[in-house]
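Box 3.1. Reading complex inputs
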Amino acid sequence: MIGLIRVFTAKDNEVLQSHGEMIQKHFGISVLSRSIPDQPLGIYDDESEMAAIPKIVELGIELEKEGCRLLIISCAADPGIQELRGRVSIPVIGGGSSASLVARALGEPVGLMGITEGVPPVMKDVLGDLIVGYNRPEGVTNTTDLLTDEGRRMALEGARSLVNKGAKAIVFACTGFATISFADVIRKELQIPVIDPVESEGLIAANFYKQTD
Amino acid sequence: MIGLIRVFTAKDNEVLQSHGEMIQKHFGISVLSRSIPDQPLGIYDDESEMAAIPKIVELGIELEKEGCRLLIISCAADPGIQELRGRVSIPVIGGGSSASLVARALGEPVGLMGITEGVPPVMKDVLGDLIVGYNRPEGVTNTTDLLTDEGRRMALEGARSLVNKGAKAIVFACTGFATISFADVIRKELQIPVIDPVESEGLIAANFYKQTD
């Protein structure tokens, strides 16, 4: 079993399970999802990240005790990944590092998209010179905005503007697009590869998890 | 279809197809394998690499013309990857970069193994501080040596010595181990993950290829 950490306090079970279910469906591995306590808004600045890290570490330690053989921190910023790696004896995979490294293997210029102010440092570090730009769709500040026709239209416009800047692939710099399967929309409309943190962490996690079955 | 470039002149069809067949079997994508002309010994020093690069580029251009939608340079050194990327309009995946980036996503200290003098620069660049050591099994200078009981014993010893140095995973710095499925031997005997360039290039290539079916 793989343990998956959501870095916010999930309001309901459907939201909690969404990343894990996508990974189970795509890669055929069982996932146990848990979310950190008392942070309904998740991580949105340095302070909230500092508050989340010890909770992420504690949750990871628990998940290892409960029998998980690999952990995923399901967030594009890889919050607490070094801290957790230092505290458990099983591998820890991060959404941001996985997506960036998978994108780097493609070797093409990429456009990044997100719904927050900037690009997580881990993604900037790995992708560096391959980044042609970052787009935050106009009027979109949370994943709910992406559920409207207008939100989707603006997000698709954003992806198109990155292609016009020379991007040969789109990398999502947040996991919010995964929940609404926005990668498939871009693939269909723009016919280019999309690298999604949830898909990427699943790809990498499954690759390692399946080796020692 | 994916085009796969072998960076030596294959003596027979079985040898030519071996990497492609492994990728087809593991990832369910069709692969067309070709080898560069007039280099039966492949790439073994700077001069032979310089000789190979224009042939790799030419072969890649041909494979794109024949309808391939993605190319693989199936070698741990990624020879000619930048040159080829500059000449075709489809993605080019390298064995060395794919293996290193997949290993980096695991985030654990790794031991590298190969049958040549040193580690390909592309792998050193990506893995850097994660490398605990490089092992070339004693008495093993080509893949044929790995087919003997003694060769396999020495290679397994080599892997074990890297684990003793702190490696949590083994990364193959050449594709020669793939042909003999040596990754499975290490996984079974040492119970640790193994990152093989042929498996990794297949994982990455399939991930992108399947997006735009």
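In summary: Chain B has two domains: 2-95+199-212, 97-196.
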